Amino acid sequence: MSTNAFAAKGALRDMIRALPALSGYQVTWGYPSRNPERRWVFVGEILWPESEWVTNRSREEVFEVSVVVNCQLSGATSEEVEGELQRMAAGIEDGMKAAPNLGIRSVVTSDFVPKKMTSFPSDGVYEGQFEAVVRVKARL
């Protein structure tokens, strides 16, 4: 199967790792292994909602890569955790604005699409998660 999705997922993970806004966060391909750090980001599921031939030798694909950001803060409130999640999501979005093709020549566009944010108390800390997808259009 020819696709740009795996290269884009790796480039997205590497871009997030290098962002100053996410310094100190564990960034992984897929869900972190056992005992993840309290602050992590995983670049996970890939979905292909669309693909079409644009010429007899070229195909255009649209795919989405899920991004989940997790944060735990001791002695914090739900509002403080959600503020930290928003700050991290803004850092990812700013990183993508600086490199909308994720450093891959065949990527035409990419977009950071927020999906869900939640926070909850958990064993003396407040924890929250921010879920988004990065929607990519690429040519093969």
Comma- or semicolon-separated keywords:
140 residues, elongated, 2 helices, five-stranded mixed sheet, alpha+beta, single chain
Explained architecture:
By secondary structure, the chain is α+β, with helices and mostly antiparallel strands. The chain is 25% helix and 47% strand. A 5-stranded mixed β-sheet has the order 1-2-3-5-4, with helices on one face. A hairpin with a 5-residue loop joins strand 2 and strand 3. The longest helix has 21 residues. The chain is elongated.
Q: What about the largest sheet?
A: 5 strands, mixed
The proportion of strand residues reads over 45%
Query: Number of helical segments?
Result: 2
- What is the helical fraction, as a range of percent? 25-40%
Query: Which structural category do the helix and sheet elements fall into?
Result: alpha+beta
- How many beta strands in the DSSP annotation? 5
Distance between the termini: 11 Å
Assembly form of the protein: single chain
Order of helices and strands: HEEEHEE
Residue windows where pLDDT falls under 50 for at least 5 positions: none
Q: Quick check: average pLDDT?
A: 89
C-alpha-based Rg, rounded:
16 Å
Global morphology: elongated
Q: List the strand order in the largest sheet.
A: 1-2-3-5-4
